[in-house]
Design a protein that fits this description.
Layout: E1 6-9, E2 12-15, H1 23-52, H2 54-58, H3 70-98, H4 100-109, H5 112-121, H6 128-137, H7 139-155, H8 158-189, H9 196-216, E3 219-220, H10 227-235, H11 237-268, H12 272-279, H13 281-288, H14 290-300, H15 302-326, H16 329-364, H17 369-409, H18 413-435
Parallel strand pairs: 2-3
Antiparallel strand pairs: 1-2
């Protein structure tokens, strides 16, 4: 295949032909173009995550003069999670409707609305309802993740998706830690009475991210709006199974990120400055390790890494339950930060599983080469929006669980016990659905010395033998 042809259509730069599974095309021009788009996608998503998690740090500036109790603050940081999760579905399909580059510019520009609104209302005397409305606006930052991941998924070949999606998501996720570090700097230097200084930094950054996306990113013309793919993905059981697992990984990451500072303040009596000096550590480590989770999944299989990861999250939860019950801050921090790291690792491995699952289904249907790759991209891209949306709503569940736990027992211990039970259930589901049926045998050789078409690299699918009816082919997901 020749180099991608970029044309100037109405609405921006469009690449008319794109086949990343063609190794010659990928080596000569595809990799360079994909990398450029990945870099500026990461920047935009990074700012989006920072804005999405804005109220996890704004509540640290809200002293007694704001008149908001701990339960109200937990609810305040939960609302952006809800809105961000809901927006992930339309954001996913906006990529095909408007183009990846065009939608990145639009979605980045929309981040100005919640940041400017927060700068206007962030002062004592503002009503709680107003705070809730402005916090809800930050949900647009959560939507950015879905469109960014769907876009980058289309640029990369299956064999590179784990690493690329991990980098894209990890670079975005680290925006949570960065805004928490920025809040720490403001509180440590100017004091908790100056939240607008933080907002004054992010407003120009939003403009820069949108401008760079406009200049350096591309739209892929082959990625068309396909409502049929959305319906097919919604009907597929694996979309909802992976949504369930993604609640356990990403739901944990974003829920803990938003709640960490409030838990430290309410359970361990930390001041806003003391809380801010600790809250960034977990999100930072969890974000940085996400590409490692994707890379490990590329090598060993996403299902295997995900299973062991959930088992480890269960062990870390036991440690946190012990520390929470015994008021041991050191042990609590060790266990809680381990949960962040493991949630980041699991984010990378679960997202790698998604394209592998649909590639395995394509091979089982008798497809091969670009046909199989196109089918996998079509269904995995559509399912990512749904999976990302449900996973983000897991963060809402975590914040509501903390809210109820502190309301009834003045401790986070009951909430952590419930999280432990969920991780145990995720472990069981991962094993039962994706690992119980291990690959049984190599594809039998075809009569006369030929061989059946091989499974796609790393997808774990079993293709039919030369005389096996097509409708009896069953994908095996052990190696996804």
């Amino acid at each position: 295949m020749t180099a991608p042809t970029t044309t100037a259509r109405k609405g921006g730069r469009w690449i008319e032909q794109w086949d990343p599974e063609d190794e010659t095309f990928w080596k000569e021009t595809g990799r360079r173009t994909a990398t450029r788009n990945l870099v500026f996608s990461i920047l935009s998503e990074h700012i989006g995550f920072s804005v999405w998690s804005l109220w996890s740090v704004m509540v640290l500036f809200m002293g007694p003069e704001y008149g908001v109790d701990p339960a109200g603050k937990f609810f305040l940081v939960a609302v952006p999670t809800l809105i961000g999760g809901i927006l992930r579905v339309p954001y996913t399909f906006a990529v095909a409707r408007f183009g990846g580059r065009n939608w990145t510019v639009i979605s980045a520009g929309m981040l100005l609305l919640p940041t400017i609104a927060a700068a206007v209302v962030m002062k004592p005397g503002t009503s709680y309802t107003t705070f809730m409305v402005v916090a809800a606006l930050t949900g647009v930052g959560g939507g950015n993740f879905a469109s960014s991941m769907t876009n980058i998924n289309s640029f990369y070949p299956l064999r590179k998706k784990g690493w690329a999606l991990g980098l894209n998501a990890g670079g975005g996720n680290v925006g949570v830690a960065v805004i928490q570090l920025a809040a720490l700097l403001v509180i440590g230097t100017a004091g908790a009475g100056h939240p607008r200084l933080l907002l004054a930094v992010y407003i120009p950054l939003v403009v820069v991210a949108a401008a760079l996306a406009a200049v350096f990113m591309d739209n892929l013309a082959p990625v068309r709006n396909d409502t049929g793919a959305a319906k097919e993905a919604a009907r597929d059981a694996h979309t909802w199974i992976m949504s369930f697992l993604y609640i356990g990984t990403f739901g944990s990451f974003i829920g803990y990120s938003f709640a960490f500072g409030l838990v430290l303040q309410n359970q361990f009596d930390r001041t806003p400055l003391q809380a801010a000096s600790l809250t960034f550590i977990g999100p930072l480590l969890g974000s940085l390790i996400r590409p490692v989770g994707g890379r490990l999944a590329d090598i060993y299989g996403g299902a295997k890494i995900t299973l062991w990861n959930f088992l480890a999250m269960g062990a870390a939860s036991l440690l946190v339950v012990y520390a929470s019950a015994h008021k041991s801050l050191g042990v609590f921090l060790t266990g809680f930060i381990a949960l962040f790291v493991l949630s980041g690792l699991g984010n990378g491995s679960t997202y790698k599983m998604i394209p592998g699952i649909f590639q395995a289904k394509a091979v089982a249907r008798g497809l091969a080469g670009e046909q199989a790759a196109a089918y996998g991209r079509r269904l995995s891209g559509a399912s990512m929006g749904l999976i990302g949306a449900v996973g983000a709503l897991g963060g809402l569940g975590i914040n509501l669980a903390f809210r109820q736990s502190f309301l009834t027992t003045h401790s986070g211990t009951p909430a952590f016990v419930s999280f432990l039970a969920y991780y145990a259930l995720c472990s069981a589901v991962t094993w039962a659905v994706y690992l119980r049926r291990a690959r049984t045998a190599a594809v039998p050789a075809a009569a006369g010395g030929g061989s059946a078409a091989p499974a796609a690299a790393g997808d774990g699918a079993r293709t039919a033998g030369p005389h096996e009816p097509r409708d009896q082919r069953q994908p095996v997901y052990a190696d996804i």
